[in-house]
Design a protein that fits this description.
The protein is mainly α and about 200 residues long. The chain has two domains: about 100 residues, no CATH class; about 60 residues, no CATH class. The chain has ten helices and two strands; from the N terminus they run αααααααββααα. The protein has a two-stranded antiparallel sheet with strand order 1-2. Strand 1 and strand 2 form a beta hairpin.
């Protein structure tokens, strides 16, 4: 879907969302500074999940992926490298030796810092002790992202899904269920930039 076919505010929020690092609330507030944080969060949710906006969102994602040579295989490979990284491989290594490690292991390192301690010896000389500290990227978060990426959670949720036999419900319960579904549909299709009738 071309940008011109979207509502102007919707396209602006989507563009801002991709530009600011995927923060929907911040994107909505950037386009409409008058919005409160809570209102901006709701607006962003509606715009980013609106069915009519999905083709444009996919187009923007494809443009970014193509421009950076990002493929699904590359994302999965990087997440796997972080999830399976072993920090004990770094114990006792000098900085030069760390640079010689395979690229996947090096990219799993989030932060490197040096802690320096200085001691005064009995003869008055000074001894400097340098300890290199390594911090790895979050393994659990990487596993969580990877599980979502390959659809593990979706399969798990389908297995846990509960089927309800509507034929066994009384008319009052059926009406309540219908009202809930109608309210959800109305919320999802509501245009946040159009004044609502009260």
């Amino acid at each position: 879907m071309e940008k011109t076919k979207l509502k102007e505010n919707h396209a602006a929020i989507i563009d801002s969302y991709f530009a600011n690092g995927f923060n929907g609330t911040k994107a909505a507030m950037h386009v409409n500074p008058a919005l409160s944080y809570a209102a901006a969060s709701q607006v962003a949710h509606l715009v980013l999940n609106k069915k009519e906006n999905q083709p444009y969102i996919r187009t923007r994602r494809d443009e970014i992926a193509q421009g950076n040579s990002i493929t699904p295989e590359l994302i999965a490979h990087e997440l796997k490298a972080i999830a399976t990284a072993d920090i004990t491989e770094l114990i006792g290594l000098s900085e030069a030796e760390v640079k010689e490690l395979n690229p996947a292991t090096r990219r799993a390192i989030r932060k490197v810092s040096n802690r320096v301690k200085e001691y005064i010896n009995k003869d008055g000389s000074r001894t400097k002790e340098v300890t290199t500290l390594y911090e790895m990227h979050d393994k659990l978060k990487a596993l969580d992202y990877l599980s979502k990426y390959v659809g593990f959670y979706e399969q798990h949720n389908k297995q846990r899904a509960v089927n309800i036999n509507l034929n066994k419900l009384d008319s009052l319960t059926l009406n309540n269920v219908l009202n809930l579904i109608t309210e959800q549909d109305t919320e999802q299709t509501m245009d946040p930039f159009q004044p609502q009738n009260k």
